[in-house]
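Hi everyone, sorry if this is the wrong subforum. Our group has a chain we'd like a structural model of before ordering constructs, and none of us has done structure prediction before. Sequence below.
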Amino acid sequence: MSAQKMEAIGTLAGGIAHDFNNILSPMMGYSEMLIEDLPQDSMLQKNAKEVFRSVLRAKDLVKQILAFSRQGDQELKPVRLQSILKEALKLLSASIPKTIDIQTNIDSHCGMIIADPTHIHQIIMNLATNAYHAMEDTGGQLKVTLKQTKIESEYDGFLELISGKHALLIVADTGTGIKKNVIEKIFDPYFTTKVKDKGTGLGLSVVQGIVKSCNGDIRVYSEPDKGTEIRVYLPIIKKMA
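Answer:
Right subforum, don't worry. Here is the predicted structure as tokens:
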């Protein structure tokens, strides 16, 4: 039943993504023409460039949706998580209220992984957005950590992971937390605790799918009124020549 549900969601997502892509194409074309026609270094041209960059990001999102629905090709390559993390958090900081304090602890020596960069960006955006929504009314602290860790396959609770070095991405918040009976359902497609206009219930199921496709794992630790911590483990590639 779960596999059939995911297949149906993938078909729906793929259809929406194709239609959305058709809308984005003229937006990209017109914004490019605006950039060329407007005076160099004018405020209007800068605004047009921001629109163009947003369209490019939206096209990346369409690509991610198509990959989720298995209608697009993944661009798997060695990826440095540090740069993607910084870019995603820069985008988020512009939209997150000042009542939420963003703290980062990013290990510059953490190794590279094999993944699609757009997928990694989507993981970070989804997890950080969920954390922000959990603190939207009260404010709080959003902490994003990246470090390198070593996993042994026989270690309790990590039987599915390949033994060896892993990149560990931690997204923690001081928000409302999650009830124990809800934690078991948060990765189910369409399950959401948010109000109608705030979530579709697809974010975490997409994140879990991406993590699993990278041979990684995702864990959630949370208590009501004590915040939530989500840990993503992704295998680090061996050093390349």
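For your construct planning: DSSP finds six helices and seven strands in the chain. The CA atoms of residues 36 and 45 lie 8 Å apart.
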